[in-house]
Amino acid sequence: MLKQLFVAVTALLLVSPATAKAPKPLFADSEVIRLTIKGPIVALPASKPDAVVDGTLSVQGAAPETLPVTLQLRGITRRKRETCAFPPLRVEFPAKPPKGSLFQGQDKLKLVTHCRRDPGFQQNVLLEYAAYRLFSELSPTSFAVRLAQIDYVNDKGQPITSRLGFFIEDVGDMADRHGLHQMKPKGRIPSTQLDPRASVRFALFQDMIGNLDWGMNGGPAGETCCHNARLVAAKADATSGFAPIPYDFDYSGLVDAPYAVSPAEIQSAGVKVRRYRGFCSHNAGVAPMAETFQAKRASLLKVIAEVPLMDAGTRKKATSYLEDFFERIATPDAIEAKLLKTCVKVVTVPAS
User: Fold this and answer.
1) Per-residue pLDDT averaged across 189-216, rounded?
2) Reduced to 3 states, what is the DSSP secondary structure of residue 4?
C-alpha cells in the first residue's frame, strides 16, 4: 500500500518536459564547442577568493564571436595549488551578450576545468560531465551542461594549454526553465521540508555514482543550504516540498579523481565504495524509485556510451561501475540489505 501510494504522489515542483522552457542557446545542443579564453589566468591568486581579472572569451567555428568576460577562481579543494594546477573558474559577462550569440542570456557561469595536464584528468572531466547527464536522464529538473574544448592563452596571447572543460547552467536559469524558485535557507533544514520522492531520487542517484560528498538538507554553518545541492520549489514562499538538485561530483566513485577522499565524518573504505545516505523516514519510496532507475537502465548506460572523447578504458570502467549499482537494487531483498540498513535517522533534539 505504501509503495502504491508513493508512486501515485507526484511532486508538485516537478514539471514535465512539455511545460518546461527551452534552454538558452549554450545548453540547447550537446555538440562539443571550441573556445579560446584569454586573460591573466595564471596570475589569479588561490589565496584571494574574490580576486577577479578581465579577459575575453572567443567562440571558434561557423559563428565566431569574441566577448568580454571577467574570470575568477572558484571551489574549495580544487583551488588549492597542491590539488589542482588549474582550478575551476567562474566566467561572468560584464556586458550582455548580443542576440544571436551562443552565450545569449548568460550572466555568470561555472566552468569545470581539467585540474592538471595529465591525460587522466581529462577523463575525470568527462566522467563528471557524464554524472550531470545521468541525473538529467532521471529528472528534467536538473542542471544542463555543455562540453567545450578550450584554448587558454595569457593576456599577451601566449598559449597556456588546451584542454576539455564544461559549463554548468546557472541555478536561477535552471529553476526558471521549469517555472520553479530557488530556495535559500540558511544552515540545516528539517528533512520534512523536502519532497520525499525528490529526496529519494537524489539519494539513490548519489548511491549510483558512489558519491558521499553532499548534504541535501544541510550545509556549512552560516551558509546557504545545502552542501553540493540546490533546493527548488514550486512557490517562492514555500515552506515544504523542496526538491534537492545535485551538483559537483568530482569526489564520487564514478569520477574517482586522484585527490578524492571520503568525508571525514563518514567511515568508508574509499570513494568507490557505495553507502546509501537517504533518510530512513523516506524508505518507503526507495523500492519504487529503484524500479524507475531500473526502467531507465538502458538510457543511463547509453549516456556513458555516448560521452564524446572518452577513451575505451574509462568507458568500460564507468559502465561496469553502474552495472554494479543495478545489481545492488535488483530485488527488494537486495535493497533492504545493501541500502536501507545505512539510511540516515533524523534525530529530534527536545527543547531545553
Assistant:
1) 97
2) helix
Higher-confidence position of 281 and 45: 281
Q: What is the DSSP letter of 350?
A: P
Q: Grid coordinates in use for 111?
A: 566552468
Q: What distance in Å separates the CA atoms of residue 10 and residue 139, rounded to the nearest whole number? A: 13
Residues 101/58, Cβ–Cβ less than 8 Å: no
Distance (Å, whole) CA 104 – CA 91: 14
pLDDT, one tens digit per residue, over 71-118 is: 999 988 898 888 999 989 999 999 999 999 999 999 999 999 999 999
Q: What is the spatial distance between Cα 209 and Cα 217, in angstroms, rounded to a whole number?
A: 19
Distances in Å between the Cα of 80 and the Cα atoms of 44, 236, 259 are 12, 36, 11
- What amino acid is encoded at 217 in this protein? N
Is residue 155 classed exposed, middle or buried when 0-12, 13-18 and 19+ CB atoms within 10 A define those classes? middle
Rounded Cα gap, residues 272 and 252, in angstroms: 7
SS3 280: helix
- Taking residues 21-45, report their average pLDDT: 94
- Comparing 200 with 42, the larger pLDDT belongs to 200
312-350 burial code (b ≥16 CB/10 A, e <16)? eebbebbeebbeebeebbeeeeebeebbeeebbeeeeee
For every residue of 49-70, DSSP letters joined together read: TT-EEEEEEEE-SSS-EEEEEE
Q: Which of 48-57, 122-131, 211-220 has the highest mean pLDDT?
A: 122-131
